[in-house]
Structures are given as C-alpha cells and as structure tokens.
Design brief:
This protein is an alpha+beta fold. It has helices spanning 2-16, 25-38, 42-99, 122-134, 165-168, 177-186, 210-216, and strands at residues 102-106, 141-145, 150-158, 200-209.
Length: 217
Amino acid sequence: MKKLFFLIIVVWAMFSCGPQERVSKETFEEVNRNMEVKRLTEVEIIQEAMVWGDSISLEAQSLLISNLQKAISETGVQGAIEFCNLNALPIIRDLEKEYSIQIRRVSNRYRNPIDAPNQEELPLLEAYEYNAESGIKSDPNIQKLQNGEVLLYTKPIIIPNGMCLSCHGEPGKEINQETLQKLAELYPDDKAKGHQVGDLRGMWAIRIPKKEVVKRL
C-alpha cells in the first residue's frame, strides 16, 4: 500500500504541472468563469469526475461485453474475435464523441499494441499490478494532467468470468486450436493469453476535460 501511495504522489507531481503540457488561454478562462459562476471547488470537480469516470467505464464495459456475447452466440468464439478486431474501437469512439472525452483500455499484456500504456499511464498501471500481485484491492483514481485542465480517471480491469478465458485463458486448455489460429492471424503481437478469472487484465484510462466536468455541475 505504501508503494501505491508513493507512486500516485509521484505521478501527480509529474503530470499536474509539466512544462511540456500547455493549456489554451481560452480554455483556462472558460473553466475559471464557470467555476466562479457556479461557485465550485476543486474537491467538487474531482468528486464529479470520479463519479462520471465510473459511469463511463461501466457503460463502455457493458457495451463491449453485450456486443461480444451477441457475436459469440451468432458466430462462435472465432467470429467474436473478428468482431472485436473490427468493432471494439468504433464502439469506444462513439462514446468519446458523445461525452467529449478520450477512452483507452491499457495493458502491459496487450492484445493490440495500440493498448500499450504511454508515459502518463504506465506508473499507474504498474501500481495496479503491484497491488494485484500483493493481494491489495485497487480503487479508481484521478490524476491531474495539463496543469489540471484534463483529469485522468483510471480503474483496474479484472477478468470477470470464464467466458473471457475462451480467448484470454490457457492455450490448449481454455483456448482451443482454432481460436489460437485466429488470434495469431489478427493479433500477431498478442500478449493477452494465460489469464485466470480474477486476474488484472489492465486498466481503463479516461481523459476528461475539466471544462466538461464543470458543465455537469
């Protein structure tokens, strides 16, 4: 727990005021005006971002799982893998457009290389990994980016049930040969096999503009 706390403090310091991250004057002034009119505090904004981040992550997960279950019932596991390859990202993009945010599923054991963590996400993901290895429960987290004008919501993604093991479990055991061939065809750099129910799969990383949170309050 001490290591997680230390990592979060370090990450906050790294990204809350980095000189390489600039915020437009217009955005900064708009947020300040709205905060003054509504008499909002930073604590209230962070709390709302946490609630909203929880809601978005649950909505995204529900959409992905329900569409995956439908694809499995209609075309089997191999067809569902093809469905995810083509449609998972567009499903996420639709949510991003709806809420004016950015959503990523991040993992060191990624299936698609685009899901590898960036420099902002890696320390937080490693903290979740440390907790998982140590049997410590991990909670969602908020970090400030771009001088506090973007709020990064993160939340661990856990393998929820046996259905997921049909393409994330042990090769030759939960994952049959036909599924392995399809995974090799579509994801030659796949690192997302060998999981068990309850394992850490990765994390949600949702970037929420502060001005969008203020609008909700």
